[in-house]
Amino acid sequence: MDENYFILSRKKIRCLFWYFGILLIIGIAFSIFSLNHTFFYKELNITMVSLIGGVGTALIGSTIFYMRKLYKGSITNVLSEPKDSKDKTKELGLFAYYLLRPVFAISFSIIFHIGLKASVSIVTVIETNLAEGMIYLTMIASFFIGFAAGDVVSKLEDYSKDIVNKTIKRL
Residue 80's beta-bridge partner residues? Predict the structure, then answer.
């Protein structure tokens, strides 16, 4: 691990642990709701339930990954306090990095859900005919998307650069 990559004050580390802990609880609640949606609220359609469940499991995956990263950094003494203004700028960027990863995970989960719905719509399945399997598929895929949100960002960057380069070459 690069030590410059883990410059965070103790106050910010504590704040992030609380933030991830709260998001983990919200993710678990959303997931439990989706798995038992008929017990809580019978009027929701499969699309909404799978979306709520996908957001929940994306939060679970993301928070588990980044909490683990924080506590491993703390245990191995890789995390360090900012010493000067340059370190404080790095700290700000790193803090934003940790704050935004769950938001990215939710966004990727929604995009996955849209792609899944689009593929179902292509074969003209009516909304009421969607099975509960859609909920489970969305939830499990969203967990992995949330857990690997950093990798998803990197792959999207590479993929979009490739598309732009190919498009420019054709012009």
Answer: 7
Task: Report whether 8 contacts 95 (CB < 8 A).
Answer: yes
Half-sphere exposure of 155 (CA within 13 A, CB side): 7
Residue at 42: amino acid letter = K
**Domain ranges within the chain, ordered by starting residue:** 3-170
Instruction: Give the number of C-alpha atoms closer than 13 A to the C-alpha of residue 170, restricted to the C-beta side.
Output: 6
CA distance 130 to 120: 9
**Torsion over CA of 126, 127, 133 and 134, rounded to 10 degrees?**
120
Q: What is the pTM of this model?
A: 0.82
Place of tokens 């642990």: 17
Residue 125 token pair: 């399945």
Pull the structure tokens for residue 107: 């966004």
What is the per-residue pLDDT across 145-170, written as a single tens digit (0 to 9) for each? 898 888 888 888 888 888 888 888 88
d(CA 98, CA 18): 12
Note the pLDDT tens digit of each residue in 28-85: 999 999 988 877 777 788 888 889 999 999 999 999 999 999 988 888 877 788 889 9
Distance CA 6, CA 95 (A): 10
Q: What is the DSSP letter of 6?
A: G
Taking the C-alpha atoms of residue 163 and residue 159, their distance in angstroms, rounded to an integer, is 6
